[in-house]
């Protein structure tokens, strides 16, 4: 079973130029820290990031994702790509190892705004078919889980990413010279 979503946010960044936003995105740790809880984000020496989300409720489960993220700046397209290389979802009991979360995201600088897009999916492994949980229950659970992820993502983009970019742009403004 696989449940998929595509989500897009267009974010106006006040007083920002395209070169400023490109400079901001070119330092992947900055947007990641703006999007995620910086206290739960750890950068490794190979440019990957480890993040453990706060737990949230899903039906009768209290789930807590833990992900390894690779973020890479592509200057020729003004795009920061973010790929969840490994994701473990704790709190699903017997389903922990049978559910895989997939996320490939992009943040693009475009004329003083950021465009954030994400392709998201939840997928069960082949072993999940042997569980005594009917597909008619798994599918709504997957849909609800992605609804929660998209709502969180939207909020983090509209609040954290916008504020992080605006703070960075403000602190890197060139003084007006007369």
Question: Could you characterize the architecture of this molecule?
Answer:
Helices cover 29% and strands 40% of the residues. It is of the alpha+beta class and 178 residues long. The chain has one domain: START domain (Alpha-D-Glucose-1,6-Bisphosphate, Chain A, domain 4, 2-Layer Sandwich), CATH 3.30.530. Strands 1, 2, 3, 4, 5, 6, 7 and 8 form an eight-stranded antiparallel β-sheet that branches. The mean pLDDT is 86.
Low-confidence stretches: none
Query: What Rg do the Cα atoms give?
Result: 18 Å
Distance between the termini: 63 Å
Overall form: elongated
Number of strands: 8
The CATH architecture is: 2-Layer Sandwich
One letter per element, helices H and strands E, the order comes to EHHEEEEEEEH
Which structural class best describes the helix and strand composition?
alpha+beta
- Secondary structure: helix percent: 25-40%
CATH superfamily placement: START domain
Query: And the CATH topology?
Result: Alpha-D-Glucose-1,6-Bisphosphate, Chain A, domain 4
What count of helical segments does DSSP give? 3
How many domains, as an integer?
1
Q: Could you tell me the mean pLDDT?
A: 86
The description of the largest β-sheet is: 8 strands, antiparallel
CATH class: Alpha Beta
Please state roughly what percent of the residues sit in beta strands, choosing from under 5%, 5-15%, 15-25%, 25-35%, 35-45% or over 45%: 35-45%
